[in-house]
Specification:
Blueprint lengths: L3 H9 L4 E3 L36 H12 L4 E5 L2 H13 L5 E5 L4 H9 L3 E5 L3 E2 L4 E2 L4 H10 L3 E7 L10 H9 L5 E4 L23 E5 H4 L7 E5 L6 H11 L6 H16 L1 H19 L6 E3 L8 E5 L7 H12 L1 E3 L1 E2 L3 E5 L6 H22 L20 H11 L7 E5 L12 E3 L4 E4 L7 H12 L12 E5 L3
Length: 477
């Protein structure tokens, strides 16, 4: 039986090329670090302690703050998720109201649940044809703040998984009029600000807390991220407290070395990394713009490192297109959605990798009519649900505790098709990207059921549910 290490080593020697995270694209020689086992230590003399940094780790984090133009920066060894959990806990109290973009990562919803917060949701615009969210508009933020004066924090995601960028500067200015902090999940924008082809990062746009996943778009190991704090609105000692509570008490020196090496690259070899990458990326995007049946999708505000290839005008679903690219061309996409695939690029990509992707998509584009002949016409895509929040997460936990072992038959599982109007007790989402379609405490709508059914029929796995095809609900709403 092969060990996991054996299987990974075998895959590493293959010709499969990854258009997915991590951004180093398996080229760890970029970082100039030794094999992991040789540098895997604990908090020994001379190597500092992340939870009480006053030596080499303190200096490394200070350098990261300088490179990213943040006031204060912390290494995250549990990924961006721990940064989001710590940030939200650090700027709220239990029972507070928080304004959150509905397309946020599931860790935002987990924070709301863990800390008993009352969510008010910002629903972004939506590209119906390709099922892709647009940006968060400052007008919607202003309206939500006016309607809900008890809001104590705002959290948005920019760029989104697909690369859609919101106007963080305008949103921050509007929110700061009420002296409320803004948290930006910029996990997918760790490369922002290092070349004019990409947007500036949110530390320069007025955000109070910014989270970056180094591993997503830069040459750093999986699970490495940064949390930045800026300005005077954030109680920084409280955020630090939660970082100490939620991060591992034995942080990996391999991961921290990876982060520091990545920041070192950004500081010393920025042009060497980004200039050739941008030239290759621009050329690739120009080639993909010439596709006739497949289509490269973008919005007015976007991150050009993300390649969203829509199959809207073909007989293919995103899942089918991804399967063709993987099986026939050995190209692994980051994500397949209903109507498109997402290819993530980074400074770690090679000219050969870009050439393979371009050739594959152009070949599929030319022959797609033959490939899909005889396939059934795709069903119309249902609209995404508008959330109807009945109970906040703390109330759901209270109800669970009340009914647990009481003998009262108030919790049940109902089939998707028979769950409309009932209050859900669990999440339902696709991963990636990890954006919930249903959240505990929300009333299940017909639109939500239609979306679940549509994704299931397209071959996607619905995660978060305890039972297949069923939702755990309150029996009497």
């Amino acid at each position: 039986m092969l060990t996991l290490y054996d299987r990974l080593a075998e895959y590493g020697r293959s010709d499969y090329y990854g258009f997915h995270m991590p951004g180093h694209k398996r080229r760890l020689n970029m970082l100039g670090i030794e094999p992991p086992y040789a540098i895997d230590i604990t908090e020994i003399e001379g190597f500092d302690d992340l939870h009480h940094a006053d030596g080499i780790l303190k200096s490394a984090q200070e350098r990261a703050a300088k490179v990213y133009q943040g006031d204060e920066t912390h290494f995250l060894v549990n990924g961006s998720s721990v940064g989001i959990l710590s940030a939200i806990a650090g700027v709220t109290r239990r029972g507070d109201t928080i304004l959150a973009a509905r397309n946020c990562h599931k860790s935002v919803y987990h924070a709301i649940e863990m800390y008993g917060l009352n969510p008010v949701y910002l629903t972004p615009g939506f590209h119906a044809s390709v099922r892709m969210n647009k940006e968060i508009c400052v007008e919607d933020v202003r309206e939500a703040l006016e309607k809900n004066p008890k809001i104590r924090a705002v959290v948005i995601v920019s760029p989104t998984y697909e690369g859609v960028v919101s106007d963080v500067e305008a949103i921050s200015k509007e929110v700061h009029k009420r002296e409320i902090p803004v948290i930006v999940d910029e996990a997918h924008g760790a490369h922002f600000g290092f070349h004019p082809y990409f947007p500036e990062n949110s530390n320069t746009k007025g955000a109070d807390i910014v989270i970056h996943s180094l591993h997503k778009t830069l040459p750093s190991l999986t699970q490495t991220a940064l949390l930045h704090m800026n300005g005077e609105l954030v109680r920084r000692e409280k955020v630090r407290k939660y970082l100490h509570m939620l991060q591992s008490s034995s942080p990996s020196y391999v991961l921290m070395a990876s982060m520091d090496s990545c920041v070192d690259l950004l500081e010393k070899r920025q042009k060497e990394l980004f200039v050739p990458y941008v030239e290759k990326l621009k050329a690739l995007r120009e080639e993909l713009l010439r596709l006739k049946n497949l289509k490269m999708v973008w919005t007015d505000r976007y991150d050009p490192s993300k390649l969203v290839i829509s199959a809207e005008n073909t007989g293919l679903t995103g899942r089918q297109l991804s399967h063709i690219l993987l099986e026939e061309y050995h190209l692994q996409m980051e994500m397949a959605a209903g109507e498109y695939v997402l290819a993530m690029t980074s400074v770690g990509d090679t000219q050969e990798g870009f050439r393979r992707l371009s050739c594959a998509l152009r070949e599929i584009d030319r022959g797609q009519q033959t490939r899909v002949s005889g396939q059934k016409k795709k069903k119309n895509i249902p609209c995404l649900p508008t959330p109807d929040v009945v109970y906040n997460s703390s109330k759901i936990e209270e109800l669970r505790e009340h009914f647990w072992g009481s003998g009262e038959n108030e919790i049940e599982f109902r089939l998707w098709t028979d769950s409309m109007g009932y209050v859900s007790l669990e999440y339902a989402y696709l991963y990636p990207p990890g954006i919930p379609l249903i959240v505990p405490g929300e009333r299940v709508s017909q639109e939500a059921v239609d979306v679940l059914q549509w994704y299931h029929e397209m071959g996607f796995s619905i995660e978060g549910l305890k039972r297949e095809f069923s939702i755990e609900v309150l029996a009497h709403g």
